[in-house]
Amino acid sequence: ISPSILKLLLERIGKGTKVVVIGCSGQMYAGKKDRDALSDAIYRFFDEYGNPFYDDFALHKFGIDDVMRDDIVKSVIIAYEHNH
Predict the structure, then answer these.
(1) Full-model pTM
(2) What's the distance, CA 14 to chain centroid?
(3) pLDDT in the model for residue 28
(4) Residue 8 to residues 15, 47, 62, 66, 78: CA-CA distances in angstroms?
(5) d(CA 33, CA 65)
(6) C-beta separation of 44 from 52 below 8 A
(7) pLDDT tens digit string along 27-84?
(8) Terminal CA-to-CA distance of the chain, rounded, Å?
(9) What does the buried/exposed string (b/e) look like for 38-66 if buried means 16 or more CB atoms within 10 Å of the residue's CB?
């Protein structure tokens, strides 16, 4: 989705509500900044090390061992991450 749509959604969070925004950086649209809400949000809310700028935000990055699909999916991810 676009950064403006994610902003619109986040601006409507109700009091006491918890929101989880999920995405996969490996599935981003190359060269499509207008559709890269996840990267835009990470840039706005976290420093380069993943530390939040605001107390009520957290960032979690899943690793290869967190993949719950068939092991071939892990191989695919590894191959594409390492440009084999």
Answers:
(1) 0.75
(2) 22
(3) 62
(4) 16, 22, 26, 30, 35
(5) 29
(6) no
(7) 666 666 677 898 899 999 999 999 999 999 999 999 899 999 999 999 998 898 876 5
(8) 29
(9) bebbbeebbeeeeeeeeeeeeeeeeeeee
Contact 45, 79 (CB under 8 A): no
**49, amino acid identity:** Y
Q: What is the 3-state secondary structure (H, E, C) of the chain?
A: CCHHHHHHHHCCCCCCCCCCCCCCHHHCCCCCHHHCHHHHHHHHHECCCCCECCCCCCCCCCCHHHCCCCHHHHHHHHHHHCCC
